Automatic annotation (TrEMBL):
GO biological process entries: proteolysis
Organism: Armadillidium nasatum
Pfam families attached to this UniProt entry: Peptidase_S10
Signal peptide feature range: none
Protein name: Putative serine carboxypeptidase CPVL
GO molecular function, one term: serine-type carboxypeptidase activity
Length: 243
């Protein structure tokens, strides 16, 4: 199968340019001035560790601020907001039905359909532990290489309500891309994208590249807005413009 392009949804592509959670959360009203200052200070510490290639230290600061996956305690974000869901700032907790798929995928019929035999299902936590040294490394140069080849299509999309990969942070990364259409992208008009009369989101497009913001969706765009996500990814895989 020949590579034709790639789509990245709410991806931490370039951590060094995507650390300014303080201003974002402050503007949402989730942080006060003290919280914003702390987030910004810790963000600068993440940048310092990344610049020094101290990847594990950078991840620990990031994890302590937002996720709390590996620190054995609640994250700073949880402690100051009371919210455990950093995938959607409108929700306090992760919806229960977000995890129903695990039971579905372990059904004997499904297991047979996806040819996994008797392999044990894992939730990915062990994998995350082994990837700690990789999470804070940038893939921006790889994306630029793909774009400069001028032979592949790239789609980067965000849910409007995501916290951990907030849309303004993705903008920071995208606006720093260096390829033949980067100046055109920076000056591109953002268009309203409608699906069946509804405003589904907003789109910037240049040759071989599209950026989409999905309205009323968090980190899990296909879960929050399955119809719009399907329309978007179908047009992309068919080689069509989103609009």
């Amino acid at each position: 199968m020949n590579l034709k392009g790639m789509a990245i949804g709410d991806g931490l592509c370039d951590p060094i340019s995507m650390t300014d959670y303080g201003d974002f959360l402050y503007q949402l009203g989730l942080l006060d001035q003290q919280g914003r200052t702390y987030f910004k200070e810790q963000g600068q510490l993440v940048i310092k560790y990344i610049q020094n290639k101290e990847w594990a230290k950078a991840f620990k600061v990031f994890d302590t601020l937002l996720n709390g996956d590996t620190i054995g305690s609640k994250s700073y974000f949880y402690n100051v907001t009371g919210l455990s869901n950093y995938y959607n700032f409108l929700l306090q907790e992760e919806p229960k039905d977000l995890n129903y798929w695990e039971k579905y995928i372990n059904d004997p019929k499904r297991r047979k359909e996806i040819h996994v035999g008797n392999l044990t299902f894992h939730d990915g936590k062990k994998v995350e532990a082994y990837l700690i040294e990789d999470v804070m490394k940038s893939v921006k140069p790889w994306i630029e290489e793909i774009l400069k080849a001028n032979n592949y299509k790239v789609l980067i999309y965000n849910g409007q309500l995501d916290i951990i990969i907030a849309s303004p942070l993705t903008d920071n990364f995208i606006n720093g891309l260096d390829f033949q259409y980067s100046d055109l992208l920076k000056n591109a008009t953002r268009h309203i994208w409608r699906v069946d009369g509804e405003v589904a989101g907003y789109v910037r497009e240049v040759p071989n590249f599209a950026q989409v913001l999905i309205r009323d969706a968090g980190h899990m765009v296909p879960y929050d807005q399955p119809k719009w996500a399907y329309k978007m990814i179908t047009r992309f895989t068919l080689g069509k413009r989103i609009i």
